[in-house]
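Q: Can I see a sequence and its folded structure?
A: Here is a first one.
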Amino acid sequence: MARSPDFRFEVPGSGGGGKLPLWPFIAAGVAALLLVIGVGAYLFWPAGTAQVPGLSGLTLAAAEARLEAVVLAAAPRVTVDEDCIRHNPGNIAAKQIGGRWKIVDGSHWMMDFGTDADSAKKVLAVLKAYGADRICYVSRPQPPMMYILNGDSAPSATAATRQRLAAAGLGREDCIGFDPATLDLESGGAGVTLVSDRSRMIRFRNMDEAKKAMLVIRKHGFTRQCFVGRPNPEFKYFLR
């Protein structure tokens, strides 16, 4: 009967009685080869350039941002700690107080539009049309992203909401659609930019803010970013 090959070698001076298995030495050789390849890559590839399939040509910071976006997109549905302020949708109004236009909930000041009465009234119409009972933020103060909710549900445009907006004198909404599947993060300069299909959406101060924004968008299924008062919009919101 054929014998299986003996993957061992004889220790010199053992008189044939000392054989050691060969696989540890093969593994050590492979590890050494990988180490040499890694050192060579570190020494000879351009500094600060990622050499990973799909990331070639990106700086390390940009590659890290891209990988963060890929991981978030592939992750299962997760919860996110949201920063929301609730209000009574039947009690909100746009009022001029001390020469400044504000949206108020009773005696509570919600938003200040300065002398811009038109924006205050338009934002009020949006909040009422979608029955929003909370305004949410990513990273206060001076939040780079805000959005509205009705309970835990994201708003969506319907024939009824369009009728309510038209009745309030607000015509077509100023919205830009995007595909959540193409969301990406670009790191550079003094912050991180959320982009969709190469279109820049929101600039964040750091990666934590940007990651939270992506989680919020995924959680609520947002597909449209809307504005009141562009350029330099006074108010931004998202729709499904």
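Q: Show me another, different protein.
A: A second, unrelated one:
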Amino acid sequence: MKIVEVVHASSVKVEALDFKSFLSFEKKERSEKITKKMVKKIAKQLKLNYSESEILFAKKIMTAYLKDRIV
């Protein structure tokens, strides 16, 4: 059983997801390949529920984002 904390909407802070906070890489260098295992580990750290298709989609999005940033 999970413990749930109820909060008011006004106390919740919404921010855009910043991939740099999860992965460190130098610009113009080949970054480490993103694996499903890495994405699952991040999801577990954030205590998120996920399916295999969602992990695959997140992996593709992160790979495309980082590929664009490096080039």
